[in-house]
C-alpha cells in the first residue's frame, strides 16, 4: 500500500475519533442548556443527574483525546498535518472542561440571582447558541470525508453564530452589572457568562482547524 493511501486511512481514523469526541461534547452542551431552568425550579434530582452526566462525558472526551494522541503517535510522520489534528482534539477537550466548569458555577448561583432581570432565560439562550455552534461542528466533521467544500461552507456559519454569542454576551454582562447588587453573586454570574463566551471562542478555534483539515483532504 502506498504511503499516500496509508495517510488517508490514518486521517480518516483520526476524524472518526474527533467525530465521536464532538458528539459527546454536543450531548454535554445540551444537558448544560437545561440547567438554568432546573435550578430555578429547585429540581435537585434533575440537577444532580445533569452534573453527573456532564462529569461522565468529560471523562469520555478525555479518554478519546488520549486515544487520538496514541493513534497519531503510532502512525508517526504518515500524517503531514498531525499537529493540527492533535491541537483540535486538545481544544475539544478544553470545551468539555468549560462545560463542566460552567455547570459547577451555575449550580452555586442563588435562585434569586438567576431570576434577576430574567437572566435564567438569557443564560439558557446563550448556552443554546453555543450548542448550535457545537452542532455545526458536528455537521462539519461529518461532511469532511464526503464533501470538503460543504465543510468550509458550514464553518462560515459558525462565525455567524459566534457573532450572535458575542452580542448577547455583551448585553448580559451589562445587565448583570446593572441589576445584581450582591458582589459575590455578581462575580459568579459574570464568571459564568464569560466562561460561556470563552467556550464559544474555543468552538470557533475548532471550526478553523476543521477548515485546515478540509483543505488537506
Summarize this entry quickly:
The chain has seven helices and no strands.
Written account of the structure:
- The protein has 217 residues and is mainly α.
- The chain has one domain (3-216): Phosphate transport system protein phou homolog 2, domain 2 (Methane Monooxygenase Hydroxylase, Chain G, domain 1).
- It contains seven helices and no strands.
The total number of structural domains is: 1
Write down the overall mean pLDDT.
90
The helix content, as a percent range, equals over 70%
What is the 3D shape? elongated
> How many distinct helices?
7
Pfam families: PhoU_div (PF01865)
Keywords: Coiled coil
Protein name: DUF47 family protein
Family: Belongs to the UPF0111 family.
Topology:
Layout: H1 3-40, H2 44-75, H3 82-106, H4 111-115, H5 119-144, H6 148-179, H7 183-216
Helix pairs in contact: 1-2, 1-3, 1-5, 2-3, 3-7, 5-6, 5-7, 6-7
Features:
single chain, about 220 residues, mainly alpha, Methane Monooxygenase Hydroxylase, Chain G, domain 1, about 0% strand, elongated, DUF47 family protein, Put_Phosphate_transp_reg, DUF47, PhoU-like_sf, coiled coil
